[in-house]
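re: that complex we talked abt at group meeting.

here r the seqs, copy pasted straight from the sheet so there may be weird spacing, ignore it
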Amino acid sequence: MGSIEFEGRRVRVEAGDTVASALFRHGVRTFGRSIKYHRRRGLTCLTGDCANCLVRVDDEPGIRACVTPVRDGMRVEREGGVPSVERDLLAVLDRLHPLLPVGFYSKTFIRPRLAWTVAERLIRRTTGVGRLATDVRPRISQVRHLHVEVLVVGAGVAGLSAALAAAEDGWSVAVCDEGEPGWLVAPGPTLERIRSLARAVEETPSIATLWHHAAVGIYEGPLVPLAGPERLVRVHPERVVVATGALESLPAFRGNDLPGVWLGRGAARLAGRHGLAPGRRVVLVAETPEAAEHLDALRASGSELVAVLAVDGVPAPTAGPRVFRRGSLAAAEGRRGVRRVVIQTDGLSERIACDALVLSTIRLPRDALLRMAVDPADGSSRGTVTGAGEVVAPGCSLDQAAESGARAGRGEAVLASEPSTPAFGAAGFVCPCEDVSVVDLERAWEEGWRSSEILKRYTTASMGPCRGALCGWTLPAFVMARGADALAAARTTARPPVRPVRLEELAAGVHEVVEKRTALHELHVARGAHVDWSGRWKRPFTYGDWREEHRAVRERVSLMDVGTLGKFLIGGPDGRELLERVLPCRVASLEPGRCRYVAVLDEAGYVMDDGVLCALEDGRAYLTSTSGGAARMEAWLRGWADRLDLRAYVADRTSTLGAINVAGPLARELLSRLTDEAIDASSFPYGAHRRLRVAGVPCRAIRVGFVGELSFELHHSRSRSVELWTALDRAGADLGLVPHGLDALDVLRLEKGHAYLGQDSLPDDHPDKLGLGWTVAMDKPWFVGRIALQRMRELPLERRLVGLELDGDASSLRGMPLTLDGRVVGRVTSCARSPALGRSIGLGWLRAVDGAFPAVLRAGSVEARVVRTPFYDPEGVRVRA
Amino acid sequence: MGLKIPCPHCGPRPFLEFAFGGEVRGDRSPGPEEDFRRVYLRTNAPGPQRERWFHAFGCRRWLVVRRDTVTNRIDPDVGDGLD
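got the structure back, here u go
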């Protein structure tokens, strides 16, 4: 096979190798350095549970060597040592434990205050498990949603049995695993069983298999996100079967973190799977019947078994190694790795020379996912999540696991058994990730931190990259051993992620931005318009020179794409009744063919949105809203139709209709070139609307005037927008037509004193504050917000939107506070140098001072005088032309 | 994250498809005092609550469910989900 590059050297790899097995074969025993004391870290679990083999792969830090298959040409480096992992000068820290007490961060470098700033830099450099990659190519993860009835997490005997049983009962099933079925299992009866079950699963069409997808957590719903190789899969199952198995416990004894200390299944896997002997001379601790399998695998790989420490009831070999029936594991000794194991029997210590210590210890459930599904409110499982196999009955047999899985798959109750309490020694590391030892825990206990959760926070035990995989059970066992009550000795809260997940995977989907475009978007772009975000829409701000666009509107004729406006058709027997009740204006008196400006109030009487209401010939109504308020308006109208129990429908035509505003003194001239119908001022006056065929395109033309000139808003089928715009554009060429964008519009409407809701208004502006009191018909008995508005009208007006005349060029004063004798009494919300008026104008809100609104203020260094609006054409002669 | 809301038109869908419409309160009040309370004072009590949701990324219709604000359990027994 190929090779990988390991710290500058080429390392040959064999088929089926992981990074860990390839490096181990190459002679690597130290895979990294611990976070605090820089102790050597070697392979331990080989199941991706612990964090002892984190290496840097192709510049990506924190990769678990033991579960990462090799790829030809892969670049692997170890991290953490100065100058190198093998010769780490910082290992001196291991002799300075007294200087680095538990709770170190809370105790040292407190005074003088400057001490920490210096110390922190130093500490940051010496600790940590890797350098962050800064020049990586960003990858964008995709999200996939998967809806199944049953999700099985874990493809072991129990998990695969669950998937098969569920599929047999007719459920749609997905089964996921961090790797492939049996990938972590040494050859033997378990692996054979898994392989035959996996074959059956692959042959079952109703089971979807998601190999190499690790479940990150279980959220309510349930929702189970799976971190896959290229994307995040969000699974929305009805039921979840968690079959994540169990992990051997790492007992606390002196030297329990030395390279050469193995969990039994890991050692067996290295031996059986990769044919590598974990050591030449091995001491085995046998606490489970499975130890016999591990022993066979070790022997087959060429390890010599020198001693077995077997508990009662566990069979041990009768010939060969020394067998200890009584006695306890006191220590593992050695500098670079295990060299001796100390076994204590009846007060006598015996040292046995060896180079590997294999711990076939009691197994503890890998149950973080399962515990996440527990309802915090009442402690019950969220019903839909069950465990199966070793995760609920650690140490169960293969048949029991299969039975348990099948029951869980069918949705039946599963037999569970309590795990044994892990043994607790007097020394050694509890949390190898964070270098927390038994001594540290004892000291913290003496200092008064006396529950699992508090010890965790103070000592940082179980807060490392393995998320408590090794210490999640031993930390509470420590508290329990000191006689604390069950609550204090409860296990610490399980939180996602239970498996490492990249930030890019967590961020999957956030790049999916909704971008709305009108039908005319390409035309604008082709014309060289500056197109940018306006809410969710991409809209033209200017086609080059906004002043020229402004002039076209005021002096000639112009077009604007207003297809973004909210557009609604309201009908049904109670359609008009709905509008009468939800809009503050009079609706009944609006004759077909007429339209009216409406301010829409919420229940609190505040202005929520505004638009134009048209009464149609057939009794229905057509309502427009602001571009940003369209989605809310639709929901709001439908909500009131439901709440008032009215037979009305609301059809949202926002995305199916386009709209073009033809504005300017020559607008009529332009339209008359494209229509045969009479559109003179008497047959089509301001405030009217009608069907109009323009350039052969059927339109609903509305005579409104946001920009303050003669204008016709042409609403039409979106599919004909391009045709209509192009015809208007061509027909207006000799009239000096120039389309205008949002920049020009901002000044045009400001000259008319029209407020932009949201920019010029505040969330608690009722109509009077905006000068829109005239739109409200208080003589109607009821409309949404009427009671609140009436109540507010009884109080003096404390704030209102006013027109401002400013000195000098005030085009950059938006947001400037308005002051009176140095007191802030308002704010400029819009301002511009008006080309039509030749002076600076603005809008702003102003607070009443001593019951009156001041007339002369300062906006920064400039004088601002309150004037009446509109600034331009106050009589509205032009708009009515 | 994965809370599902039973939409009477679309079936159970992830709550991210919905917009929250608040607790179900009255629609009209007899007087200003009641109106103030209706508009501004939420019950905000832990436990079951009738509330409106708008299926924004679905049928774009409103529905009413009874949701326990502590456990997020949604009671399927509220009529057909329509108010």
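couple things i noticed - The interface with chain B takes residues 219-224, 234, 236, 375, 377-378, 603-604, 631, 634-635, 638-639, 642-644, 652, 782, 787-788, 790-791 of chain A (CB under 8 Å). The first helix of chain A runs from residue 19 to 25.
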